[in-house]
Recover the amino acids of this structure.
């Protein structure tokens, strides 16, 4: 395998050198590099050119439109500009040999120091601490069991010559912890050495348009789909579905890619009562969980994570009690209102005022009214919506 990798790198080196504008003997090759531009982070570098994916092609394939915040990275050679120093360019070479994917960096000798300094700066900028999400008891453990722990047992599964796909749906209104859960799962996956990929609805639509859904759905052992909508989950146009897109998506979910085992995690903010039964089976989506508005205990747990400079000036228990039916995102907005009033309007830490001002900015039906169940839990009959209360509800899902 090492010899095969050496031959791949040897063939790629002249092209990489040309992309960098230097001679091949003036290029350093780094076995490992900081791959934050490959995943969802706040700060990333800009991809400006991609050539590949292999020397066996009669003509190299040029992928246009690989820009900052793109949802794709390609096999082959991709040229990036350092966001902290645009005068420094580097090449990421991605190749797959057998079941392994290799990432190498090509950098000109004269740029090596500035490149390494840039990488350290990027690490520092993206090193925001990721904390476990505040969720009802047992929910995070159930999702982790069916995703991270499942992939950790991949070797045992392969012993029986089985390739398994699994789909998990996290449903519910925005702001109730789905994004926090996904960020935590991504951290656990990275810590365990499991590659992840985040897919937006625009990337999904693009893959549908160019017949690359199977490749996208199998682009990593753990794939996250953000805010998937009914156009891919229903063939009924009256329910917001799209027969052609839903059919193609259902078929692609059954397709195999280079990864032996795949866990796909979908999030949905909208009701999906019209979801096709075709999606409700093993290998497509076989587990679903509803993220309801947090109860008082969960709201208090989140508030206790706020900076001490805020907590020392407010009554946390009172705030948790006065924000019934608020989502986690709503609470964060109240915190922002508190800080804004204090810093810019010289108003002392008035919790009641901050809550009233926040409610005034919300739609008429936003706060203090019952929230409808969303996601697969509501449509599959596997998760029963309970009235919003300050007691701990049972964990929904399957």
């Amino acid at each position: 395998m090492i010899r095969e990798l050496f031959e791949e790198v040897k063939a790629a080196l002249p092209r990489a050198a040309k992309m960098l504008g230097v001679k091949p003997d003036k290029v350093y090759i780094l076995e490992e590099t900081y791959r934050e531009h490959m995943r969802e982070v706040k700060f990333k570098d800009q991809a400006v050119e991609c050539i590949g994916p292999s020397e066996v092609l009669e003509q190299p394939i040029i992928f246009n439109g690989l820009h900052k915040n793109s949802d794709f990275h390609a096999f082959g050679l991709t040229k990036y500009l350092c966001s902290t120093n645009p005068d420094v360019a580097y090449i990421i070479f991605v190749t797959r040999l057998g079941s392994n994917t290799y990432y190498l960096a090509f950098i000109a000798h004269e740029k090596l120091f500035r490149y390494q300094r840039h990488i350290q700066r990027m690490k520092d900028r993206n090193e925001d601490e990721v904390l476990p999400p505040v969720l009802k008891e047992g929910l995070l453990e159930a999702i982790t069991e069916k995703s991270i722990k499942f992939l950790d047992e991949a070797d045992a599964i392969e012993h029986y010559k089985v390739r398994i796909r699994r789909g998990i749906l996290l449903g519910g209104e925005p702001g109730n912890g789905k994004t926090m859960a996904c960020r935590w799962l991504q951290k656990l996956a990275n810590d365990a050495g499991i590659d992840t990929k985040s897919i937006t609805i625009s990337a999904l639509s693009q893959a549908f348009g160019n017949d690359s859904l199977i490749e996208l759905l199998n682009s990593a052992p753990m794939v996250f789909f953000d805010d998937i909508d009914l156009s891919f989950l229903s063939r009924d146009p009256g329910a917001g579905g799209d027969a052609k897109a839903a059919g193609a998506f259902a078929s692609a979910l059954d397709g195999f890619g280079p990864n032996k085992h795949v866990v796909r995690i979908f999030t949905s903010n909208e009701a999906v009562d019209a979801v096709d039964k075709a999606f409700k089976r093993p290998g497509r989506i076989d587990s679903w969980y509803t993220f309801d508005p947090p109860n008082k205990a969960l709201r208090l747990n989140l508030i206790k994570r706020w900076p001490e400079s805020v907590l020392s000036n407010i009554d946390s228990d009172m705030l948790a009690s006065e924000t019934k039916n608020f989502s986690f995102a709503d609470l964060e907005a109240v915190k922002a209102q508190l800080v804004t009033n204090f810093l810019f309007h010289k108003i002392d830490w008035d919790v009641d005022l901050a809550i009233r001002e926040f409610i005034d900015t919300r739609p008429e039906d936003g706060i203090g009214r019952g929230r409808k169940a969303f996601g697969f839990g509501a449509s599959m009959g596997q998760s029963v919506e309970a009235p919003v209360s300050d007691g701990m509800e049972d964990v929904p899902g399957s």
Observations:
- Residues 92 and 278 are 39 Å apart (CA to CA).
